[in-house]
């Protein structure tokens, strides 16, 4: 069982009248709201939190890429990962991931990931993603080509890491006379690959066939994760092998305090800032991003999305976030990790307005009072 | 009214074609809204003409979107289709995405298209008159954007209200096929403006005064830069001209074609 601290690097100062005045925290939210001085403080706090995760014994830290939004102000996770490659000593650095259709050419991702792998001494986990729906608006990238660009970029990056260069690549979306990236990664033949998914069968099959790791996209009801992870295990069986739990990851918000009451009292305003403001507009499916049938299906599945929650009871019933004393958090996680059969827990310990000191306290309690017990209990369970 | 439904094979692309009415041929090129089933506007045209109403690749039951990379591929598709139908110098009534397509077809094969009616045409970028965002999924906002009166009966009848609408799969397909050619550059061809002087045939441009998706300035630009064009502006009308001003628009189109 592996424990990761996941960071979005969210914006914590949306205006008071945000809910009335703005339809979304994405793409069209005026960037005047971003205050660079305060942004600098936030970035430094957020990096401190991830360095702390390393010191606390987390197995890894996760950063990710988003553009033109308040939900995650990390357009280049590779910049953050390269700082972490220096400032952390032991933990894995998972970039989940680079939105490779936006890298022109995508070999840029192969190069930058290789740099991070070298600097960190081979601690990189390489996440490769299609990019979120809103980002196809932010970059004016044609979403009807999203999937084929992703596949072309993916195969090109894998070749760049595994085949001696220079070689030619004449694909549909990129034409490269010389592919020959310097540097190459320490980890051979390439760093571990993580791919996040929202439950589309195409992605699940793609990951299962190649024996990579599938990360469940967060903020959905437990039942939705269950369905997707079961589908993944079935697809692995179809490829004649049994899923290693470490091929599955589950990302969710976690908050630990001394008692259940205290945890909810401290956490709730921050949780609602996240749910009602930062998530607003995250779920957008531009045309052709996935098939018309999938879009219609996912739109209906959004009834199981966290932003539909109105109360603490809704959050708890759907397992959208785990909140409570270390004992409560441990017990709930144990039960759900076993049920979902996942080998990587990706905790979101900071989700917007949660202050730096409370985030650090949350992570410390988790690392000291939850993680060791879960490790002991689940390593036995999962490997048996 | 005489109606015939056909499925054509156009260079490997399965293409839905509806043929409506009797008389000399007329080609109708539809908008991003995908009016591929006969609407009242088509029927009006079909009182005088045999209206050929093909569905663009990716719309309705037409396939072959995988062979369309941009507006030029779509234009070549119509070169093939007109060849298959043995049509030359055919009058064309075209609307929005279809009007942009018609202009591109006439550029590469001027003899195929005769008198041309362009209604609320996409295709240009006009400084100071940006087109609004069509690719949103809030149906109420879209209705506001497209109709002069978003509460009108046409607006309710001709536009889905939510994701549970039975027309939604077709609507999503239409949206995808439009995005394929119109996402970037956004609903225009940067080179089209510099070609307009080569489109020398007679053109009737029709625009709604209150078009919020493609502002009237685009109609004025077309009318000013096409060598032989006339602009007619319809009052109390948004982007949805064939629905909101069905009779007037059809009359203008028919008169223009008859006199051209």
TrEMBL record, chain A:
One of its GO terms (cellular component) is cytosol. It is an enzyme of class 1 (oxidoreductase). Coiled coil: none annotated. Its EC number is 1.14.14.5. InterPro entries: Bact_Lucif_Oxidored, Luciferase-like_dom, Luciferase-like_sf. Keywords: Monooxygenase, Oxidoreductase. The keyword Iron-sulfur does not apply. Residues 29-342 form the Luciferase-like domain. SUPFAM superfamilies: Bacterial luciferase-like (SSF51679). GO terms for molecular function: alkanesulfonate monooxygenase activity. This is Alkanesulfonate monooxygenase. It comes from Bremerella alba. The gene is ssuD.
From TrEMBL, chain B:
Keywords: Hydrolase. Residues 28-251 form the AB hydrolase-1 domain. Pfam families: Abhydrolase_6. It comes from the Bacteria. InterPro entries: AB_hydrolase_1, AB_hydrolase_fold, Carboxylesterase_BioH. One of its GO terms (molecular function) is 4,5-9,10-diseco-3-hydroxy-5,9,17-trioxoandrosta-1(10),2-diene-4-oate hydrolase activity. The keyword Hydrolase applies. The keyword Transmembrane helix does not apply. SUPFAM superfamilies: alpha/beta-Hydrolases. Its EC number is 3.7.1.17. PANTHER family: HYDROLASE ALPHA/BETA FOLD FAMILY, PIMELOYL-[ACYL-CARRIER PROTEIN] METHYL ESTER ESTERASE. This is 4,5:9,10-diseco-3-hydroxy-5,9, 17-trioxoandrosta-1(10),2-diene-4-oate hydrolase. It comes from Bremerella alba.
């Amino acid at each position: 069982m592996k424990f990761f601290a996941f960071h979005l690097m969210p914006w914590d100062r949306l205006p008071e009248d945000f809910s009335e005045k703005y339809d979304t925290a994405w793409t069209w939210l005026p960037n005047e709201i971003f205050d660079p001085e305060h942004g600098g403080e936030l970035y430094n706090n957020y990096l401190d939190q991830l360095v702390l995760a390393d010191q606390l014994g987390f197995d890894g830290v996760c950063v990710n890429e988003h553009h033109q939004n308040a939900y995650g102000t990390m357009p280049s996770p590779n910049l953050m990962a390269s700082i972490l490659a220096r400032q952390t000593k032991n933990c894995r650095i998972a970039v989940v991931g680079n939105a490779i259709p936006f890298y022109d050419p995508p070999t840029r991702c192969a190069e930058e990931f290789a740099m991070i792998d070298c600097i960190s001494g081979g601690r990189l986990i390489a996440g490769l993603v299609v990019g979120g729906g809103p980002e196809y608006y932010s970059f004016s990238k044609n979403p009807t080509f999203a999937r084929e660009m992703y596949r072309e970029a993916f195969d090109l990056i894998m070749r760049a890491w595994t085949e001696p260069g220079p070689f030619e690549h004449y694909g549909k979306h990129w034409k490269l006379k010389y592919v020959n990236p310097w540097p190459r990664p320490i980890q051979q033949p390439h760093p571990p690959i993580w791919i996040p998914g929202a439950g589309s069968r195409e992605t699940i099959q793609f990951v299962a066939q190649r024996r990579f790791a599938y990360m469940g996209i967060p903020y959905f009801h437990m039942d939705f994760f269950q369905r997707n992870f079961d589908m993944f295990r079935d697809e692995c069986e179809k490829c004649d092998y049994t899923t290693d739990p470490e091929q599955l990851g589950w990302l969710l918000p976690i908050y630990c305090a001394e008692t259940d009451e205290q945890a909810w009292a401290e956490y709730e305003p921050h949780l609602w800032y996240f749910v009602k403001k930062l998530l607003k507009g995250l779920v957008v499916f531009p045309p052709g991003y996935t098939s018309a049938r999938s879009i219609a299906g996912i739109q209906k599945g959004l009834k199981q999305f966290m932003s539909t929650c109105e109360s603490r009871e809704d959050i708890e019933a759907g397992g959208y976030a785990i909140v409570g004393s270390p004992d409560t958090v441990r017990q709930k996680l144990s039960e759900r990790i076993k049920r979902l059969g996942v080998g990587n827990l990706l905790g979101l310990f900071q989700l917007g307005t949660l202050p730096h000191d409370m985030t650090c306290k949350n992570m410390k309690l988790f690392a000291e009072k939850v993680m060791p017990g879960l490790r002991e209990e689940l390593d036995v369970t999962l490997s048996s | 009214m005489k109606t015939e439904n056909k499925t054509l094979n156009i260079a490997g692309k399965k293409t839905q074609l509806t043929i409506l009415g009797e008389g000399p041929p007329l080609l109708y090129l539809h908008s991003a809204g995908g009016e591929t089933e006969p609407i009242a506007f088509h029927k009006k045209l079909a009182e005088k003409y045999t209206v050929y109403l093909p569905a663009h690749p990716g719309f309705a039951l037409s396939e072959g979107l995988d062979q369309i990379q941009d507006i030029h591929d779509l234009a070549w598709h119509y070169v093939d289709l007109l060849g298959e139908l043995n049509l030359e110098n055919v009058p064309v009534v075209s609307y929005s995405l279809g009007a942009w397509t018609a202009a591109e077809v006439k550029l590469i094969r001027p003899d195929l298209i005769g008198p041309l009616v362009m209604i609320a045409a996409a295709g240009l970028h006009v400084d100071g008159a940006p087109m609004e965002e069509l690719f949103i999924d809030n149906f109420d906002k879209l209705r506001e954007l497209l109709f002069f009166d978003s509460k009108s009966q046409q607006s309710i009848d001709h536009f889905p209200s939510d994701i549970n609408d039975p027309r939604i799969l077709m609507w999503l397909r239409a949206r995808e096929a439009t995005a394929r050619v119109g996402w970037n550059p956004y609903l225009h061809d940067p080179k089209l403006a510099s070609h307009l002087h080569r489109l020398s045939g007679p053109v009737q441009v029709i625009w709604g005064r209150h078009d919020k998706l493609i502002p009237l300035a685009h109609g004025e630009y077309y009318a000013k830069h096409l060598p032989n064009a006339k602009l007619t502006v319809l009052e109390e009308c948004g982007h949805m001209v064939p629905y909101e001003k069905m009779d007037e628009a059809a009359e203008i189109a028919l008169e223009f074609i008859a006199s051209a």
